[in-house]
Design brief:
Blueprint: E1 2-6, E2 10-14, E3 20-29, E4 33-47, E5 55-69, H1 75-101
């Protein structure tokens, strides 16, 4: 994906077909924390289930938000926490993600 937008604390990367974009941003949060956001947006054309012969744009997105204190965690420690979180989501061929998307708790 190519960078299509840049700000002082953010950037947007967009696929050539314009159907997928990745946003990365950093901001100060309450309580002396920094908030890092990685957001993936995707859209596709899908059949309208209510109107025969009509297609609609169907967008979806997935986010990863990391809030870390200004002090107390090194970048290496923060990465270890995030790596553990991502590993839990990916374990068992993504079983946890499948459960969440199926409205399970």
């Amino acid at each position: 994906m190519n960078r299509t937008s840049a700000g002082s604390n953010s950037g947007v990367f967009t696929a050539p077909d314009q159907n997928t974009s990745l946003t990365v941003s950093h901001a100060k949060a309450k309580g002396g924390k920094t908030r890092h956001l990685v957001r993936l947006d995707n859209r596709k054309i899908a059949a309208d289930p209510l109107t025969a012969g009509v297609n609609v744009v169907a967008p979806m997105s997935a986010y990863l938000v990391i809030e870390s204190p200004y002090t107390g965690y090194s970048v290496t420690e923060q990465k270890a926490v995030v790596d553990g979180f991502i590993a839990a989501l990916a374990a068992g061929s993504g079983a946890l993600v499948t459960k969440v998307l199926g409205n399970e708790m």
